[in-house]
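User: Structure please.
Assistant: Input sequence and predicted structure:
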Amino acid sequence: MDLRQLEFLVTVADEANFTRAAAKLRVAQPGVSARIRQLEQELGHELLDRSGRTVRLTEMGATVLPYARAALAAVAGARLAVDEVTGLLRGGLRVGMVAPHSSTEFDLAGLLASFHRAHPAVRITLSEGTADHLVESLQTGQLDVALIGVGAKSPVGVAWHVLVDEPLVAVVSSDDPLAAGAAIPFADLRARTLLTFSRGTGLRSVLEAASARAATPLTIAFEASEPRVLVQLVARGLGVGILPESAAREHPRLRAIPIVRPRLRGRLALAWRSEAPSSPAVRAFVQLARHGVRPVTNSVTEKRSRRQGSS
């Protein structure tokens, strides 16, 4: 049994597919299959069920997998300890981001470029997903850091640093009756057809939490992960969009109305595992985000909404 066999097992289990695992490992698929077969022969049991369209762990495979992860983590920890002593900053940084992130106020490419200039030996990879998927990937160690939309509560084992904190606004076409108003109470959204982000996003969780607290059921008829799609639907008069203020400002023909009683906020944050040792590269990236990027707080609509009464 060797570490490469364990790495192949963990990767196939994570990807549930030999082809994707081989691509991720940058080896030929037959090589992956052969090494796992060798491991199964050494242990005397099949670890993977290959009978379906997706590869699944057998009962024995599920038993072995935590030990395989622990062995790989122990080796990674030993390398980190050496790096700490020698002061090296190398290896990889696996970054996830919501697809796409709804705020236009944060320059992720700029942050990544700054980190690369400071630490060119660190290999950076970037992937997309929903906030829920990215959090799960952080918790299981498949990602090192992730840019996510966050709700009111921090998931177990995840810490974050807020990069953008801005109001959520109701967006309507210019001929909508709401366009003449200075603000809209949250309870009044109950009577309207809403367009907003998909389930699993931070903004959607904020909206659902507010609906539950206020006992105000909402009618969400259209949902999408792309702000531009929602804006186009709003422009065609299909409903009221619930968007971050920065996304609404990109479209001057539409009217962004503050939501009050309560005011809702969308937050974009850099998240990382809080209960596991982090590499020097992760710590350096988090430090750059904490100190090199100033949190953005938008308040254009808030200046108007403060004149409308309490939150």
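Residues 69 and 233 are 46 Å apart (CA to CA).
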